[in-house]
Design brief:
With about 425 residues, this protein is of the alpha/beta class. It has two domains: about 200 residues, Enolpyruvate transferase domain (UDP-n-acetylglucosamine1-carboxyvinyl-transferase, Chain, Alpha-beta prism); about 220 residues, UDP-n-acetylglucosamine1-carboxyvinyl-transferase, Chain (Alpha-beta prism). The protein has 14 helices and 24 strands. The strands form six sheets. The chain has a four-stranded mixed sheet. The chain has a four-stranded mixed sheet with strand order 2-15-17-16. A four-stranded mixed sheet has the order 4-5-3-14, with helices on one face. The radius of gyration is 21 Å and the shape is globular. The structure holds uridine-diphosphate-N-acetylglucosamine. Uridine-diphosphate-N-acetylglucosamine (UD1) binds next to helix 1, helix 5 and helix 6.
Length: about 425
């Protein structure tokens, strides 16, 4: 298994190109199930999760063609075409590896009147139930049954009628599933307390480009007037705000200055606000966002919450930065119950962190030291790379498959700005 070796202490400087957003791509791809016509997605990141989702789509009879696959290119273009759905079952074997597979439930049900998807099972960052996905689809008129580890959703004859649902808690995935089903309902649907993450806006924009009628885009109240059919489209995936935020933390911890090329400041406002409070300068400019740090970092208190508040997907990376800030920071994780798995690993590098339930208290230390570390989720793994960039000596981050799920060519991007990082095979 590959690992990444980071020699700490190099100041990052230069430009990092930001890829298309993984979490947007994972909800734009299943939109290909909603039309017989081709859907072309540009700026798709090259990631293991995207390859996995492509494979899943192929199981349903979706053809996929890829362009822009030169090794030196970041991103790719994928055309997906679904003249006929040949299979409506997403098997355990594929869903188990990729939780986002649940996002085929809504569009498959809308197109075919039925869909069977394996329950995703537990996940390293908490239980992550799918009850809200099922409740909202029921509200749109689906009949849902759970049996042998599978969810089977069936629409009445004549298709899903549509309906109203107020989410008791904000869920990104359940909002996405509901939107992809509601666009082809025979009537109008209303979603209250819907997620309004930029990735949801990206999904709405694609659906509108395919002929959907959606009101309230960018707000937590969405009204969807169902249409009889959707057509094909060509669409560019938004920039990855979490990847951009991660590299901002990487630059800041080294006292460096980087341009996050293609990043959109308005989509990562809470992260930039947190960084500024920590003492990092962040400026939007024409080509992206520039972050610069002078080595002095200040402790802050941070709490994650649904957009527009601070993303839970930025918590681990900001924590890595705060391990070397002056003073004591308090972090509160309100979205997932088990998202501090990077803490014992950061402690192995000399960080001083106490956790209690959803709270982490980070006592800033003057320096970190390199160590062999591994983490059990994607963003946690990135926090270890960030810490490694600052640490004295050599850090080895194992279980690279987590990073490969969400960071396109991490080591190449870091090398572009002067980091000493290398991917090596395990001996
Ligand atoms: C998405 C993102 C993930 C991010 C998360 C929160 C993708 C592929 N993943 O995950 O990176 O960390 O949003 O911003 O886009 N919940 C329920 N029942 C449900 C669904 C969710 O109780 O049916 C709870 C979850 O346990 C969690 C909270 O709602 O506590 C938010 O989860 P949700 O927004 O659904 O996250 P995902 O869509 O899984």
């Amino acid at each position: 298994m590959d690992k990444i070796i980071v020699e700490g202490g190099k100041r990052l400087s230069g430009t990092i190109p930001i890829s298309g957003a993984k979490n947007a791509a994972l909800t734009l791809i299943p939109c290909a199930l909603l039309t017989e016509e081709p859907l072309t997605l540009r700026n798709l990141p090259r990631l293991a999760d995207i390859d996995g989702f492509q494979h899943l789509m192929n199981q349903f009879g979706v053809t996929t063609a890829i362009q822009g696959n030169r090794p030196e290119d970041f991103g790719r273009v994928m055309t997906l075409e679904t003249p006929r759905v040949t299979n409506t079952v997403a098997p355990y074997e594929l869903v188990r590896k990729m939780r986002a597979s649940i996002l085929v439930l809504g569009p498959m049900l809308a197109r075919m009147g039925e869909a069977t998807v394996s329950l995703p099972g537990g996940c390293a960052i908490g239980n992550r139930p799918i009850d809200l996905h099922l409740k909202v689809l029921e509200a749109l008129g689906a009949d849902i049954e759970l049996a042998q580890g599978y969810v089977k959703a069936v629409a009445p004859d004549g298709g899903l009628p549509g309906g109203d649902y107020d989410f008791p808690v904000v869920s990104v995935g359940a909002t996405e599933n509901a939107l992809m089903a509601a666009v082809l309902c025979t009537g109008t649907s209303r979603l209250g307390n819907a997620a309004r993450e930029p990735e949801i806006v990206d999904l709405c924009n694609l659906l509108v480009a395919m002929g959907a009628e959606i009101e309230g885009i960018g707000t937590s109240d969405l009204t969807i007037h169902g249409v009889r059919r959707l057509h094909g489209a060509t669409y560019r995936v938004m920039a990855d705000r979490i990847e951009a935020g991660s590299y901002a933390c990487a630059a800041a911890i080294t006292g460096g200055e980087v341009l996050l090329e293609g990043a959109k400041a308005e989509e990562m406002a809470a992260t930039l606000h947190a960084l500024r409070n920590i003492g990092v300068s962040c400026e939007a400019e024409k080509g992206g966002v520039r972050v610069a740090a002078d080595g002095k970092l200040k402790a802050v208190n941070l709490s994650t919450a649904p957009y527009p508040a601070l993303a839970t997907d930025m918590q681990a990376q900001l924590m890595a930065l705060l391990t070397v800030a002056e003073g004591t920071s308090v972090l509160t994780e309100t979205i997932f119950e088990n998202r501090y798995m990077h803490v014992p690993e950061l402690a192995r590098m000399g960080a001083h962190i106490e956790t209690s339930g959803r709270t982490a208290i980070v006592h800033g230390v003057s320096g970190l030291t390199g160590a062999e570390v591994m983490a059990t989720d994607l963003r946690a793994s990135m926090s270890l790379v960030i810490a490694g960039l600052r640490a004295e000596g050599r850090t080895e981050v194992r279980r690279l498959y987590h990073l490969d799920r969400g960071y396109e060519r991490l080591e190449e991007k870091l090398a572009l700005v002067g980091a000493a990082v290398e991917r090596v095979g395990d001996e």
